[in-house]
Amino acid sequence: MPRRSTDAEFIAAWETARGSVLEVSRLLGVTERSVYDRRRALNNRGILLETNPVRESAATYTQAWSYTRERQATVENGHVVVFSDAHFWPGARTVANEALLKVIKTLKPARIIANGDIFDGARISRHDPHGWGQPPSVKEELDACLERMHEIALAAKRGTPLDWNIGNHDQRFDRALAINAGQYEGVLERLADKFPEWEMAWSIRLNGSVMVKHRQANGIHAVYNNTLKGGLSMVTGHLHRLAVTPWADYNGRRWGVDTGTLSDPLGPQFEYLENNATPWTSGFAVLTFKDGRLLPPELCEVLDGHAYFRGNRVV
Ligand SMILES: [Fe+2]
Questions:
Q1: Is the CB of residue 294 less than 8 Å from the CB of residue 282?
Q2: Mean pLDDT throughout 104-108?
Q3: In 156-203, where does DSSP find H-type helix?
């Protein structure tokens, strides 16, 4: 039976193999399963071993992704506030938005993640208008987003990393430009250029074990399916339901999280619901990491016009 390698030997093998699990298992004479286990154990202690081969092979493609595929970050101890689906329109802040500012000021999170659909893009939707109602112009929506997102940045401690995972509605902004003025690539400003405080990507992976992205599965069991199929704790938006669903298997306990919506589900952005009953709920999620391990995720939830977090009325 091979001697158990030291952390330094394992990390050296990982670097030599450039993150190929198969190659690391050959180098150390251990099973691939034990390489995965060891990598996860190191990640849980805050030693993040990156999957370089994916990046390097991606770099060989002649065509790049429109947005960064996956960013990676480490949070050893502290909070990460994740909000999504703000669909900001001109006008007053929502209750959930007010609560978000207060919770950020109180918790002083290690990072803040906007998990998609911050911009709505009503006028550049591929769907027909509902009637004669006049949704705001792209400029009016953009101005609302700039104001609200800057407020959030100001509520955070100076230097707090701010992440923005692209949602399908956010995508409308760049897609409309690419369709209607494709020849102006590099001349016109993309959505990312308008928000230099926020780092945009499709997804961000925290401590190797928590994937945060706008959407994956659909349907009533989406949150459960996300963590089951993703194999990681998965934090998504898009469904506006605000929920935490635990799962456990041989890899231990993890969670699927739906970060709800920062908007008001009765807002004019959602006329397409035709006043149907909906499980949509205002709020956002707070992730807490202890020694690199995700603890049970918490929700700030709006109930009957007030926002509650950890048993206290925040707004
Ligand atoms: Fe969405």
A1: no
A2: 98
A3: 168-180, 191-194
> What is the domain class of 71-313 according to CATH?
alpha beta
What residues flank ion ligand 1 with Cβ within 5 A?
Answer: 117, 167-168, 238
At 19, the pLDDT band (50, 70, 90 cuts) reads confident
61 CA to middle of ligand 1, Å? 28
pLDDT at 59: 58
Specify the residue for token string 């060989």.
60
Max distance between CA atoms of the chain, in angstroms, equals 75
**32 alpha carbon – ligand 1 mean position (Å):** 36
Count of positions (residues) in the chain: 315
For the chain, the structural domain boundaries read: 7-59, 71-313
Percent residues over pLDDT 70 in the chain: 96
User: How many angstroms separate the alpha carbon of residue 38 from the centre of ligand 1?
Assistant: 35
- Does residue 177 contact residue 66 with C-beta atoms inside 8 Å? no
Distance between CA atoms of 177 and 170, rounded to whole angstroms? 12
pTM (predicted TM-score): 0.81
pLDDT of residue 1: 63
Centre of ligand 1 from the C-alpha of residue 81, in Å = 18
